[in-house]
Design a protein that fits this description.
- The structure holds two protein chains of two kinds.
- Chain A is of the alpha+beta class.
- Chain A has two domains: 74 residues, Alpha-Beta Plaits, CATH 3.30.70.260; 75 residues, Alpha-Beta Plaits (2-Layer Sandwich), CATH 3.30.70.1150.
- Chain B is an alpha/beta fold.
- A six-stranded parallel beta sheet of chain B has the order 3-2-4-5-7-6, sandwiched between helices. A six-stranded parallel beta sheet of chain B has the order 11-10-9-12-13-14, with helices on both faces.
- In chain B, helix 20 links the parallel strand 17 and strand 18.
- Classes of the chains: A alpha+beta, B alpha/beta.
- Chains A and B meet through helix 1 and helix 2 of A and loops of B.
Chain lengths: 161, 564
């Protein structure tokens, strides 16, 4: 099963390599990994999407916690959380189908961020399914290039009772 | 007053209470060696950096205090890797300092540059590159703290030459504050209560103790706990000495070369109490059939050890010593009395197993020397009062089976990584730590050649380390596997009758002795034990056909032992 794990780490030299090395050395999968500084510049936040059965996920979280630079490990799976990915999609278009492409962009609340006579570059954010859906709809026009970030995620605040 | 990085390094070691370091000089660490020239810090000059790490490791295992290593950049640093990996697998506190090229050259493929922080990331508990002299004292403090707390392990600190030459105000921090590193020491009271109830409800309990008992200094607590409840104890290789080897409740080692009694007891137990052990594959055999009838209680300071290989019923994360004390508080006399009444039948079963297929070192005096006999004689003639180190292979297993370790920190052996060449330098480190003790490396003729250069170190410091070479002219353990599982195709395991170990020892300035017949064994050992000022090689020419029994073939359950 896929899990989204959010990790706070000390923003130090070599931390990314320690975490990547832990995954490769112990044979765990990384499906995506995002990392950036938090509001406290001494701390970075990583979001890792990984997969495995319960025992493997338990080992992953424990092994991550054991790293000296890791402050907190939070497996978001099974909780209420927000997840987003961003994709840049460069799609072919011409005078005949520009309107159709734009309407897809509109439906997905995406943006056109670059235009050329033969293409649009579209920026879209959303969860994995939304990105997959727009990609499918744009595919018939001819996707020239696609770049995606990994997933970032955050636990939802508890709802008022 | 300002001090240079090199001076801060030495002052910080004094602050940590370090009395001895093991090292080898080179270009990048010259500033430290220059500062050492004027310092009273004791530096042991080794002959190979791998030897330095194993010595520091042996020093640490024998004393419980961290061992300290100092080497230069590049090849000096890369030569420490095997030693660090050895210490890492066995959770031994070692702090290694490596020289590094000046910071402005890092990444430029400079002369004697290696990315040692990158290389050792997976084989150290943690490591550091110090880029600013103002971080130096704090990093050294943290390095010792991390190496010795929680589950111990090696820590490496990489020191660029310009940082060593730079200077700053020396302030050694009193305390360490690492928000992301907070080991759990105290066991959860609810889990402890559950565990005690589980034990008291059991009829066929067994304690399976590992090296964690020794690193936690919990041998006394383990003995009290086992004695109080009348529960038999088996240990892992790393746990030998955690429970007295001569105690009637001791079953010997379990696992691949464990005793018949220990393996049968573990196979039939209804309550396995794992204490500071990690269910290594050499211990469990086929994992699905390990302790199949047991509720498993697991006490360990490292949460990652719990339910890694074997799913555990009652985990307790915490320091073994404190957890055992807490458990004993819950044992009332009445409950204990009731519990012990129920153990009679189980104790009868165990006695039966221990009597069948018991280990034998019997020697026919008219035939070739049996290696088991040599170990048995070493045990008798030292009255068990010695620190034993081993190499890896048959020598290691026979030492584990036939020498009875009465106390912890008496067997120093590379259990996890299985490093040939470990025993001799570890023995040197132990001898330096314990100058009045008899220290014996039980070696094979293969392993001893992997760090034989340290003879020079032992001679130079007048260390009376004894090396008992069980010389069978083979890489014996591999040969044994070839015999059992590869139809006796002895592919590249015969290393022949060379070199002449007596002459080698003498060439370095040590003593060389040889026994070719069983009746020469005692005189050679007695002669060796008399030597007090230099190393001794005892070359025991043993029967090459001897195998280590019992043996559980890899991947088989513990109950499927090959017995002689």
């Amino acid at each position: 099963m896929r899990h989204t794990i959010s990790i706070s780490v000390m923003n130090e030299f070599g931390v990314l390599s320690r975490i990547a090395g832990l995954f490769s050395g112990r044979g765990f999968n990384i499906e995506s990994l995002c990392v950036a500084e938090t509001i406290d510049p001494r701390v970075s936040r990583m979001t890792i999407v990984t997969s495995g059965d319960d025992r493997i996920i338990e080992q992953i979280t424990k092994q991550l916690n054991k790293l000296v630079n890791v402050i907190k490990v939070h497996d978001l799976t099974g909780e209420e959380y927000l997840e987003r990915e961003l994709a840049l999609i460069k799609v072919n278009c011409n005078a005949d189908n520009r309107a159709e492409v734009l309407s897809i962009v509109d439906i997905f609340r995406a943006k056109v961020v670059d235009v050329s006579p033969r293409s649009y570059t579209i920026e879209v954010t959303g969860d994995e399914e939304k990105i997959a859906a727009i990609t499918e709809l744009l595919r018939p026009f001819g996707i020239k290039e696609i770049v995606r970030t990994g997933r970032i995620a955050m636990a939802r605040s508890p709802k008022a009772k | 007053m300002k001090k240079t990085g090199a001076e801060i390094f030495i002052e910080s070691l004094f602050k940590e209470g370090v009395d001895t370091i093991f090292g080898y000089p080179g270009g990048a660490v010259l500033p430290i060696y220059d500062a050492l020239y004027k310092s009273r810090l004791r530096h042991i000059l080794v002959r190979h950096e791998q030897g330095a790490v194993h010595m520091a490791d042996g020093y640490a295992r024998a004393t419980g205090r961290p061992g300290v290593v100092l080497v230069t950049s590049g090849p000096g640093a890369t030569n420490t890797v095997t030693g660090l990996a050895t210490a890492y697998m066995d959770s031994i506190p070692v702090v290694a300092f490596t020289g590094q090229v000046p910071t402005e050259l890092i990444g430029n493929d400079a002369f004697q540059e290696a990315d040692i922080v990158g290389i050792t990331r997976p084989c150290t508990k943690h490591n550091y590159l110090v880029k600013d002299i103002r971080d130096l004292a704090r990093v050294i403090k943290e390095a010792f703290y991390i190496a010795t707390t929680g589950r111990p392990g090696p820590v490496l600190v990489d020191l660029p030459k310009d940082v060593l030459n730079d200077s700053t105000e020396f302030i050694y921090p009193d305390k360490v504050h690492i928000p992301s590193y907070q080991p759990t020491y105290k066991g959860h009271p609810g889990q402890i209560r559950k565990a005690v109830n589980q034990i008291l409800a059991s009829k066929r309990p067994i304690i399976y103790a590992g090296g964690g008992v020794i690193s936690s200094n919990a041998a006394n607590e383990l003995r009290q706990f086992a004695k109080k409840l009348g529960i038999h104890v088996t240990t892992t290789l790393m746990g030998l000495g955690a429970f007295p080897g001569t105690d009637p409740l001791f079953l010997g080692m379990l696992g691949m070369h464990g005793t018949y009694g220990a393996n049968m007891a573990v196979t039939n137990t209804d309550c396995l109490i794992a204490i500071g052990a990690r269910f290594d594959d050499r211990v469990t055999g086929k994992i699905d059939e390990f302790a199949p009838y047991a509720k498993i209680i697991h006490i360990d300071i490292d949460p990652t050890s719990i339910s890694k290989n074997v799913v555990v019923d009652i985990p307790i994360v915490g320091d073994v010593r404190g957890v055992l004390k807490d458990m004993m508080k819950l044992l009332t006399a009445a409950k204990v009395r009731e519990f012990k009444k129920g153990l009679k039948e189980w104790h009868g079963d165990i006695d039966g197993w221990m009597k069948t297929h018991s280990l034998s070192a019997a020697q026919d005096m008219t035939r070739k020397i049996r290696p088991q006999y040599v170990i048995e004689r070493l045990y008798r003639l030292t009255k068990g009062d010695a620190i034993i180190t081993t190499e890896v292979g048959q020598n290691q297993m026979w030492a584990a089976q036939f020498f009875k370790f009465k106390e912890p920190r008496r067997l120093l052996t590379s259990g996890g990584l299985g490093t040939m060449g470990y025993g001799f330098p570890a023995a040197i480190g132990a001898q330096i730590a314990c100058p009045d003790k008899t220290v014996i490396d039980i070696a094979g003729d293969g392993s001893i050649q992997m760090n034989i250069q340290e003879l020079a170190t032992a001679v130079e410091y007048k260390l009376p380390v004894k090396v008992a070479i069980l010389n069978n002219r083979f890489l014996g353990m591999v040969r044994q596997w070839q015999e059992f599982f590869y139809d006796k195709r002895y592919s590249y395991t015969c290393i022949g009758n060379k070199p002449d170990f007596v002459k080698i020892a003498e060439a370095y300035g040590g003593v060389g002795l040889r026994a070719k017949k069983p009746d020469e064994v005692d005189p050679v050992i007695k002669e060796a034990l008399k030597v007090k000022d230099r190393p001794v090689f005892m070359d025991f020419v043993v029967d090459a056909a001897e195998d280590v029994y019992p043996m559980v073939p890899a991947g088989q359950p513990l109950s499927k032992m090959l017995l002689v």
